[in-house]
Write a structure and sequence with these properties.
- About 25% of the residues lie in helices and about 40% in strands.
- The protein has 6 helices and 15 strands.
- The strands form 2 sheets. Strands 1, 2, 3, 4, 5, 6, 7 and 8 form an 8-stranded antiparallel sheet that branches. The protein has a 7-stranded antiparallel sheet with strand order 11-10-9-12-13-14-15, with helices on one face.
- Helix 3 packs antiparallel against helix 4 (about 60-80).
């Protein structure tokens, strides 16, 4: 338990005073314990060194050494969590000058966790060796990855960054960066995509679900007869009529994949959004959008809905 600052100052002042008066091992130990509880790890380690210098340290040499080892572990974790490391890297001609550039994702690792913080795109220009750091709005998550490929047809390598959010819906953060007119631009981000691609999901009579796509003004009808009888009987009566209105939803972007559908060296983006029924784990299928660069933005080339099959 951490102490508040008033208690910390008073306790530390008290033990320093007693040390000056008596230099008793008990007060060195008490000071170290207070510093440790207050999160003053470096100070506590120095105090323990002083406490161990006594012939008969308090409470014992063994306990002080154990305390020292625990604090050293804490200090190591603190140092590792604040150290920026390279998570992944790729090489490609980002600015189209014919020279390979180095592209990195750097971040801070959370101790004892696969969670990364302060994820940053870093580009080292292959010609000048200068570094450019590109922050992202959503810069924390799991499994950050890099892909380099031409999405815009400018004959340079564009940059796709994908980060797992760790949320129950399996959503991701995603960005595409490209050099346009001599400047690195964000030409895709998952927040804007999620705002644009909105849907309604309604259960219908006769074991069907209607999915309305607002952006493309298209409608899809899903057949639920593959679901087991227990599932269907909970929401439909024997005549296939809904017992009560039910609405589902479509989750935010959960997958974004570079695919060269036309085999022309220019990648499209294939985006997946999971359709949920009564609850998130009640998955009904996926909305799939193929996005193609039109010179100004990624626009939908086609949209499909993929559903799950049943055993035959």
């Amino acid at each position: 338990m951490k102490l508040d600052m008033y208690d910390i100052r008073n306790a530390i002042h008290y033990y320093y005073t007693k040390i000056q008066e008596t230099n008793h091992p008990y007060y060195w130990y008490s000071l170290a314990e207070t510093q440790s509880r207050a999160g003053l790890t470096n100070e506590a380690l120095q105090t323990i060194e002083n406490a161990l210098s006594f012939q008969n340290p308090y409470p014992s040499k063994t306990e002080l050494v154990d305390m020292q080892l625990n604090l050293q572990t804490v200090l190591s974790r603190q140092m590792n969590s604040s150290r920026t490391v390279i998570v992944t890297s790729r090489q490609g001609d980002i600015d189209g000058d014919g020279t390979k550039d180095n592209v990195f994702l750097t971040a801070n690792k959370t101790p004892d966790s696969p969670f990364w913080r302060n994820i940053t795109l870093v580009i080292q220009n292959g010609r000048t060796n200068q570094y450019e750091q590109v922050p992202m709005k959503n810069d924390a998550g799991y499994n950050p990855t890099l892909f380099l490929g031409d999405f815009t047809g400018n004959e340079g390598d564009d940059i796709l960054v994908v980060i797992d959010t760790g949320g129950s819906g399996g959503s991701i953060y995603a960005y595409v960066f490209s050099y346009l007119n001599g400047q690195l631009m964000t030409i895709f981000n998952s927040d804007s995509f999620n705002e644009s691609f909105q849907y309604d999901v309604h259960y219908e009579n006769q074991y069907k679900v209607k999915v309305n796509s607002h952006y493309l003004k298209e409608r899809y009808i899903l057949d639920l007869t593959y679901k087991d009888q227990e599932y269907l009987s909970e929401i439909y009566n024997k005549d296939g009529i809904l017992k009560a209105p039910i609405e589902g939803w479509v989750n935010p972007l959960s997958g974004l994949y570079p695919v060269d559908f036309n085999r022309d060296g220019i990648y499209e983006l294939e985006a997946y959004q999971r359709i949920a029924g009564r609850y998130n784990a009640d998955s009904l299928g996926f909305v799939q959008n193929v996005l193609k660069w039109n010179g100004k933005a990624f626009a939908p080339d086609r949209q499909n809905v993929a559903i799950f099959g049943e055993e035959i």
